[in-house]
What does this fold into?
Amino acid sequence: MRILGLDLGVKTLGVSVSDATETVASGIATLRFSENKPEECLEDLRKIINEYSVKLIVLGLPKNMNNSLGFAAKRSEDFKALLENNFNIEVCFQDERLTSVTANNVLLQADVSRKKRKAKVDTVAAIIILQNYLDIRKGKKDGK
It folds into this structure.
């Protein structure tokens, strides 16, 4: 089974996918849409879901550092409902606190230019969200 990882922004959606063994997350794309209109990328997502035979979607949930939910979390909750209604696939949340910071640091360490970092940060954040989910899930399967 393949799992899709998503990092929802105001104008972008970072997309990653797991390997068939659900061990490693890899980046696919950053989809762009009009501000606060992620429904514009549903057709591109449909193609990705079909191409990779996705059975589960992991969507980043942007919690505040005090564990409360703000406006960005509400956007993610609305997007989760949109995904479930359009694709008939289970969508679960993964805490995404500090994933964009981590993604930027990874790209900085890789000496990626500022312009290229901006284009890649959402995809890298989606990889981190999905990889965190896969690692937690694997730990649960191993009885840890």
